[in-house]
Fold:
Amino acid sequence: MNKREKQNDGVTIREHVFDGIQEYDQKLPNWWLFTFYIAIVYFVIAWFVYYQTPAPIPNDGERIEGQIAVIEAKKKAELESMLASLSNDSLREMSKDATHLASGKAIYEAKCAACHGLDLAANLNGIPLPGVPLNDTEWKYGGEPLQIMALITNGSPDLTKGMIPWKTQLSPSEIAQVVSYILSKQPS
Ligand code: HEC
Structure:
């Protein structure tokens, strides 16, 4: 018995019926078959080149990591040149930069607010906190930006007061950002 049934229009339909549905049995078009064969050949070549050649071509992940490393190196170089040129004026300039201020605020709230207060006034609902106010014009150790930076970096000369050298926990750029945040809160 012939399993295939030729229709008038040349379309072949399989005999098999399931749930009232029959299947076409067509030869795939040549353009489709060629694309398929080319894809198979391409796969074999690509597999060989990527995985079997001695100097592997970097995959996407490695390429992205390479790009990130380049960006990181650039950022580091920029940061270093920024730190090298750090001055009272450049710190004041930083205190107008929204990105530095946002980072400085985050560091301040995490590390400093416990003693100096969220509003820098060193008191919490009328209860004085251990730190000194940083939002006034009175500076025990000098109010120039570089003096503030040095005091935060190296701590108070009197360590028993609780103001530790923050250089052990914060990078110079983070300290510069926190200084710029404090500067932005100065009464003008
Ligand atoms: C454990 C409490 C405590 C923490 C936390 C703390 N400080 Fe202080 N800070 C103090 C005290 C106390 C003084 C006063 C030190 C003195 O009189 O010698 C001080 C002094 C200072 C001064 C000098 C003020 C002046 O009048 O010259 C600055 C600036 C300062 N702190 C910034 C910071 C920053 C920025 C942070 C967070 C990175 C921080 N402090 C975290 C307690 C603290």
Q: What stands out?
A: The longest strand covers residues 12-18. The radius of gyration is 35 Å.
